[in-house]
Each structure stands twice: as C-alpha cells, then as structure tokens.
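About this split. The held-out portion is used to measure sequence recovery: a designer receives only the structure tokens and must propose an amino acid at every position. Recovery is the fraction of positions where the proposal matches the reference. Here is one held-out target exactly as it appears in the evaluation file.
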C-alpha cells in the first residue's frame, strides 16, 4: 500500500538578517528529510529544541513552502495544487498546536470554534452542525452544554480537548500534533494523551506526533524519527528505537530521561548553530564515539526498517538501555499509572 504522506528530500532555509536588514546567512531548519507515513500509522518526531520538528510538520501540511523537495499526500504532489484545491485538501489534514490558549479564538464560543471547519468543508448540512458539535464535545470528554461557553471558561486541558474536537470534526485523514500536551500539567497530559490515543484508534487516523517527551512518544508511537539539526538521524519501530537505539544521539537522548538508569554517555554541550552545521556527521562535535572520518563524511540513513545515519553504529557496544527502558523511569511509571487509571468522563 502506498504511504499516505511522503516527504522527499525536503529542505527549508530561513534567512537570518541583522538589525539593519542585511543578510547574515540562513538557518537550515530542515535540511534533506525523506520520510513516509503509512495509512493508520502513528509516527513520532523527536529531538532537542530547534532541530526542525515543527518546521517539518508545517512543511508536511504545506502551511509553509519548502525550498526544495516533494510532499505527497495520498500519492498527489501538493506543490502542484492551486489555492482552491489546497483548501479542499485541508479537510484531510489538520494540525493540533501546543498552546490551547493561543489556538482557540477568545471571541468564538466553543460551538462556533468546532462548527467552523464543519461549515468550511461542508461536512454536514447546516441544520445538523449543532448536533455534530455536541457529539464531538462528548467524544472528547466534555458536555454538550459546554457548546455555549467561551474558551476562557475552561482549563488548559479542557481547551486542548476543544482544540482536538475542532481538529478532528471535519474528518481528517492525517493529523499532526505539535507538542499537543507539552503545555499541560503532567497529570492532565496523561489524560489528553489517552484521549488522543483512543481517537486515533477509533477513527483509524494517521498521526504524526511531534514531541520532546519520550515517555509520551513511547506510549503511543508505532515508529519514531529522531531529528538532529534539520536531519533524521534514526528512524525505526518505536520498540526498537527505544529498546535498542542505534545512533549515539538517540542513546544520549534516552539516557537524559530521568530515572532511566541508562549508562549511555549524556549529551555534552549545546546544539551547534543551525546556520553553520558541523561538517561531516553533524553530531560529531558532541559524539563520544566519533572517529576521524566522522568529521569529513556526511553519513546517510542506512540499516533498513530500523535505520541510523551514523558511520560507526555497528561497532558500538550494545545499547545498555534495552532492559531498563522496558520498565524504567519514575516519570514513565507515573504516566503509565495515569494511563491505566484513566476514567471515562473524568475530563481535566
Ligand atoms: N519563521 C522562522 N524564521 C526564522 N527562523 C526560524 C523560523 N521558524 C523556525 N526557525 C528556526 O529554524 C530552526 C528549527 O525550528 P523549529 O521550530 O522547526 O524547531 P523545533 O524542533 O520545533 O523546536 P522546539 O522543540 O523548540 O519546538 C530553529 O533554529 C529556529 O530558530
Ligand atoms: Mg517546535
């Protein structure tokens, strides 16, 4: 089966100017990313702040234009579409933002917010909008009579539930969640993750989860793409990436999860400037395993269904994380306890 979403060698540069408007160079936010997402798959994109996760998500939905590369949705090249055709495709592609305070218009009632995409895409006849909104409110753990209220009357978790209803009500095929729970309190995060997971399963959604929270990713992703400085450095089934990470960067990221009990070397130093990424392997300046060649040659992603962009991963000692990650991490356990204890209707 052909993938629902296919990205080929995508690139996006952001020009950087000084105070006088003079060009200083460019940030290579996404720098040659190829990736496909199968129908019904949950793919997570992880990596440190600034590595290009959000830019990649926005490119995938064509909210911003790539400088180079292809975006195919259902086999169709989105670049060739007219504005009208792209608007029609919007029904199939939705984005859930991190900040539920910013993503809901304070001047719109909950009903208006959820009904807007229904109306825009003519999902239901006008007379049925209110009923559909009520249905969605209940589906996300709120009450039908919440429809008449305003966003400011709700907590962060409730607002995110409203934002989720708004994103899903038009029946999209692909949803990108850009840190959809990061702004919420940890106890509420678990409930909202649980809600999302249930909806993904029930609706058969294809979901791209952008998150720096590895506990959340581990809980819901089928596959994981690890990004570093605009590139994918590891890509594979979640169980393998977490259980037997190949790339030294992934190992270090996992080691940084508190309580993980990992023996992998932690990440040293800051991420280099994305305006001038290191030569050769971009990770070599922070890699404890780097060899001379890593400074010169840019590694390709290799290794089949669980791939890494690293010259030396075969020679590394077995990842010391494999057993610990299966149970490990205080935070992970706390989250898991929440997931299993989630009660329907106990909306945060
Ligand atoms: N509109 C923009 N103009 C200029 N630079 C940008 C713009 N958007 C992103 N960048 C830069 O591109 C790089 C990648 O940013 P991006 O937001 O995609 O990272 P991210 O992985 O989502 O980070 P975070 O985890 O903090 O959300 C960063 O260096 C960022 O500063
Ligand atoms: Mg981001």
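Reference sequence for scoring:
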């Amino acid at each position: 089966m052909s993938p629902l979403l296919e990205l080929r060698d995508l690139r996006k540069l952001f020009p950087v100017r000084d105070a006088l408007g003079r060009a200083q160079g460019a940030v290579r936010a996404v720098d040659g990313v190829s990736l496909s997402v199968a129908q019904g798959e949950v793919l997570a994109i992880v990596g440190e702040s600034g590595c290009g996760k959000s830019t990649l998500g926005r490119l995938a939905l064509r909210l911003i234009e790539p400088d180079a590369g292809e975006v195919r949705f259902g086999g169709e090249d989105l670049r060739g579409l007219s504005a009208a055709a792209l608007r029609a495709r919007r029904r199939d592609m939705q984005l859930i933002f991190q900040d539920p305070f910013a993503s809901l218009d304070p001047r719109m009632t909950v009903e208006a917010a959820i009904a807007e995409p229904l109306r825009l895409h003519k999902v239901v006849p006008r007379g049925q909008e209110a009923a559909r909104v009520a249905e969605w409110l209940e589906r996300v753990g709120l009450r039908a009579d919440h429809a008449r209220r305003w966003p400011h009357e709700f907590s962060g978790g409730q607002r995110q539930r409203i934002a989720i209803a708004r994103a899903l009500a038009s029946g999209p095929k692909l949803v990108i969640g850009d840190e959809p729970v990061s702004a919420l309190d940890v106890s509420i995060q678990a409930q909202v993750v649980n809600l999302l997971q249930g909806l993904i399963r029930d609706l058969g959604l294809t979901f791209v989860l952008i998150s720096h929270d590895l506990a959340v990713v581990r809980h819901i992703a089928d596959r994981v793409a690890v990004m570093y400085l605009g590139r994918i450095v590891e890509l594979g089934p979640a169980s393998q990436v977490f259980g037997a990470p190949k790339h030294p960067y992934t190992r270090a990221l996992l080691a940084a999860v508190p309580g993980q009990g990992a023996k992998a070397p932690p990440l040293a130093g800051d991420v280099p400037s994305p305006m001038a990424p290191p030569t050769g392997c971009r990770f070599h300046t922070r890699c404890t395993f780097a060899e001379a060649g890593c400074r010169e040659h840019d590694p390709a992603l290799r290794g089949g269904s669980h791939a890494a962009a690293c010259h030396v991963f075969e020679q590394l000692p077995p990842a010391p994380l494999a057993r610990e990650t299966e149970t490990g991490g205080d935070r992970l356990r706390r989250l898991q306890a929440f997931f299993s204890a989630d009660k329907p209707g106990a909306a945060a």
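Annotator remark: The two ends are 39 Å apart (CA to CA).
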